[in-house]
Amino acid sequence: MVLINSSLKEQVQLLSKIATNDGHSENSPYFEAWKAYDSDPYHSITNPQGVIQMGLAENQLSFDVIKDWIVHNQSASICTSEGVDKFTDIAIYQDYHGLPKFRNATARFMEKVRGDKVTFDPDRIVMSGGATGAHEMMAFCLADPGDAFLVPTPYYPGFDRDLKWRTGVQLVPVICESYNNFRITRTALETAYQQAGSSKTKVKGLLITNPSNPLGTILDRATLEDLVSFINEKSIHLVCDEIYAGTVFKMPEFISIAEIIEEDIKCNRDLVHIVYSLSKDMGFPGFRIGIVYSYNDNVVNCARKMSSFGLVSTQTQHLIAAMLSDEIFVEKFIMENRERLGSRHEMFTQGLAQVGIGNLNGNGGLFLWMDLRKLLKQPTFEAEMELWKSVINNVKLSISPGSSFHCSEPGWFRVCLANMDDETTKVALQRIKKFALQTLGALEVKPKKLSCQRSLKLSLSFQTRDGIMMSPHMSPHSPSSTIA
Amino acid sequence: MKMLAKKAMCNSHGQDSSYFLGWQEYEKNPYDETRNPNGIIQMGLAENQLSFDLLESWLKANPDAASFKRDGDSIFRELALFQDYHGLPAFKNALVDFMSEIRGNKVTFNPNNLVLTAGATSANETLMFCLAEPGDAFLLPTPYYPGFDRDLKWRTGVEIVPIHCTSSNGFEITESALEEAYKQAHKLDLRVKGVLVTNPSNPLGTTLTLKELNLLVDFIQAKRIHLISDEIYSGTVFDSPGFISIMEVLKNRNLTNTEVWERIHIVYSLSKDLGLPGFRVGAIYSNDDMVVSAATKMSSFGLVSSQTQYLLSAMLSDKEFTQNYISENQKRLKQRHDMMVSGLLEAGISCLKSNASLFCWVDMRHLLSSNTFEAEMELWKDIVYNVGLNISPGSSCHCTEPGWFRVCFANMSEETLNLAIQRIKIFAEATIKTINENKSQEQSNKNSKRKSFTKWVFRLSFGRETSER
Question: Looking at the partner chain, which of B90, B130, B303 has a beta carbon nearest the beta carbon of A484?
């Protein structure tokens, strides 16, 4: 046995620390639910009792609009007879500036998604391997190993990998709480900043996601202006992940950091950078279209060189350039997409409300931030885990527990709602309702055995009845594909 | 400026090298047959443009793959959503088969050991992250591809220590050179984690000999370090001796599934063999499960577009197509290579004897004004600005001897190549003439100095004036 151990140790030493540590963040127990889904995926006909995936923030609602465009625009593919004469030029083009028409079309699309209230310079657009690659690239450009970024909680679990793993950068949480709907307060920012300082950690920037993942809310003007003044005061960078900008389906209107910057002449623009992608707004995660947009020339130059490590396939650039240059299509898509997201959101929130389940009032993203605090046996993360585990196995819904998003309060869950058809949505809602009623029933029985305090909590909880479904957070990879 | 990371402000991206500067000059004044016939001809970019017609005709004959269809049904949605970093199974299967075919089917590859990356650029960087800590070193034979300075070192903090190869033996890797490099690393207090070779070599255009491959295996066994074999040009071997993959060597030495087996990693890409650099298709092949696992997770930072994976899985699964492509491509490369070599010979310029790749390693030592890198730079600038050819100076490839240049031949039409050769001929003739004139001027200066001294002595001796020539 000793021999085996020492050979494993040797084996580990042959590789780097990065290759053998947990920095990839995939060892989180929450991947159990992914495995549960992968091994038992729901299918309306072949596996109606299977696990429904609600832990994957995909946008599948508007593919028909896109497919229609593709069928009528054969030349957008360099492989069709209409487009093949461009094949050679596209296939050999490896300039890391990207195809000019791709940058132009992307800049224009980003403007349209923001209601034409801002302008983007195509020369500031830098490609990356998805938003995943963009975030890592930003960390490499803006920070040295050991430096830190402040990140408001709850936040997308992938940041732990994207910003930290290979870069050696740290994340310091800015705690946001439910009492004020998880708004980012100046107090919370200052606390986090001081905390970093006291451990002699140099803060290089603040990373925000707007619209928020997992909250599904947008930042209001006052908060955005406060963030801008904070970063200017501290002379740190502001990285705004606006990957869900096109998913805002109802008022209030989305305000991009670009809008704030254009209005605020005092702001040091060299500190502001935007991360974007077409994975959520358009539903193209497979095409790996990530964008870094920086107002800082040096960052643009550096990021461009680094983009060599994750350029967008020119085949894809060509397709996207054609698609996003079609202004009529873009307008139609944005509108249609918003409408459908809105309807789906409405369907969900109403369905949940019928069993007394509430959620944070949001108007963007591809998910709900569901409030199941009152269904916990105790207000602890252990109770959250217990509930979540039992739901994967019994209710067979894969949703993501708040703790995987570093939420400071137990009992919140992210539920994705745009990655399934209407029928599946109905099935999912049915399951939640049934479970909620069952669980609540069970909890109502239990109060006799519990302490007074507990009974008090439970009787208060009668108002909102939540079903709890458990699933992991967004995995770095999608479930097994049906493509051969 | 302190606001950015050190990485953002240093030169480790390597783009101030003459290799990249030459490209910039080309961009400012690119040759075009009709619009800019006096422009600079790009010979510094190792692209394979010789066989696109084969790809295009396959596409025309296979419309389904091209237009997101499988058996006539649209699979657009599935592809658009597919972001599994394990890659499209059909694509990986087709890719390993293609890799096998290139190696004459003498070795087979397991698709589960293949990791897809955004080009070989990303593959090489990812392997560094997996195998080395910041401050560790990899040994690389010189001359080597300038991009390695960025890919292996920039964001990883890994160092490169050169294994010096010289023209005395055709730049082959020797045991003493390996040992010397290893010692040098230790002198610099660097821990050596492995050796990285490019086979076929960039910029030499030669395949590693069996002797060199065995030497490498012995060396990494003795030192217990890794060996990365960048085989990105494996499909461009057009002449004997054939290509011997590192996997073949291990197999023949019965080293399969031994300890050293797990320390061998291959990097591949479709940028050179198929001429598709724009599609960003790279791969790492490793026999070490932990490396495969770590690299797979890291590939999240640079996955291959599913659209591209799907197209290429269809193309590479067509065995008739791949067999024909591989052999036709090699024929055309050979023809182009021979054209370049004979053309240069007529200009009195020789090349290192090569059997692969998209370029020649050209010997212009005799055109240097002095045996120095300054003279090489002078010559290079002359060639870029006055002759109008962007070629890559050996110093940018870390060659230890001045006077060698990498010249690409597969990224232009035959007419353009002929024109380039004509330009070189004129330039070479003129340069040699100037050199000879300088030499004889120097000689006659020396002679006349001697003569006048003799005359002076004579005058002194005989007190008579003598006129000088």
Answer: B90
Top-confidence residue, A136 or A77: A136
- Which chain A residues are Cβ-neighbours of B125 within 8 angstroms? 309
CA distance A255 to A264: 14
Q: What is the pLDDT of residues A419-471, one digit of tens each?
A: 999 999 999 999 988 888 888 777 776 544 434 444 333 333 333 333 222 22
Catalytic residue among A42, A155, A156, A276: A156
Helices (H), ranges, B151-209: 175-187
Is B54 in CB contact (< 8 Å) with chain A? no
The residue type of A198 is S
Provide the pLDDT for residue B454: 60
With a cut of 80, say whether residue B102 has pLDDT above it. Answer: yes
**CA-based nearest distance B62→chain A, Å:** 9
- Using CA atoms, how far residue B91 sits from A182, A267, A311, B87, in Å, is 44, 48, 19, 7
Contact indicator for A431, A438 with CB cutoff of 8 Å? no
A280 is catalytic: yes
B112: three-class secondary structure by DSSP: helix
Looking up tokens 């599946």, which residue turns up? A424
- Any bridge partners for residue B159, and if so which? B137
Residues of chain A with C-beta less than 8 angstroms from the C-beta of B294: 15, 18-20, 24
Q: Where do we find the tokens 């996207």?
A: A320
**pLDDT of B459 above 90:** no
Average pLDDT (B323-350) is 96
- Which structure tokens are listed for B459? 């005058």
CB contacts of B7 in chain A (<8 Å) are 140-141, 144, 302
Given an 8 Å threshold on Cβ–Cβ distance, is B59 in contact with A477? no
Q: Identify which of A262, A182, A197 has the alpha carbon closest to the alpha carbon of residue A234.
A: A197
Identify the pLDDT of residue B434. 86
The A203-209 sheet, strands edge to edge: A125-129, A289-294, A272-277, A237-241, A203-209, A148-152, A170-174
What pLDDT shows up at residue B94? 97
What is the Rg, in whole angstroms, of the alpha carbon atoms belonging to chain A? 23
pTM: 0.89
Strands (E), B179-239: 192-198, 226-230
Side chain identity at B157, as an amino acid letter? G
Chain A contacts in chain B segment 311-330 (CB below 8 A):
311
Please give the residue of chain A at the shortest CA–CA distance from B135. A16
Residues of A with Cβ-Cβ distance to B77 under 8 angstroms: 60, 63, 67
Q: Say yes or no for a CB contact (<8 Å) between B82 and A79.
A: no
What's the pLDDT score for residue A453?
40
Residue A17: strand, helix, or coil? helix
Section B262-281 average pLDDT: 95
pLDDT of A392 reads 85
* B12 in Cβ contact with B238 (< 8 Å): no
Looking at residue A457, its pLDDT comes to: 37
Nearest-CB residue to A313 (from B63, B279, B291): B279
Residue with tokens 């990371």: B5
Question: Which of B15, B272, B305 has the most A C-beta neighbours within 10 Å, making it the best mutation to test the interface with A?
Answer: B305
The whole-chain average pLDDT of chain B stands at 91
As given in the structure block, the two tokens for residue A236 are: 């740190």
A146 CB neighbour count, 10 Å cutoff: 11
Residue A40 to chain B, least CA–CA distance (Å):
17
Taking the mean position of all CA atoms in its chain, how far away is CA A275? 12
pLDDT, average across residues B32-49: 92
Averaged confidence pLDDT in chain A: 87
A160: CB partners within 8 A, 6+ apart: A25, A171
B414 within 8 A of B339, measured Cβ to Cβ = yes
Closest C-alpha among A302, A194, A336 to residue B4: A302
Rounded Cα–Cα distance for residues B335 and A248 (Å): 59
Mean of the pLDDT values across residues B238-246? 95
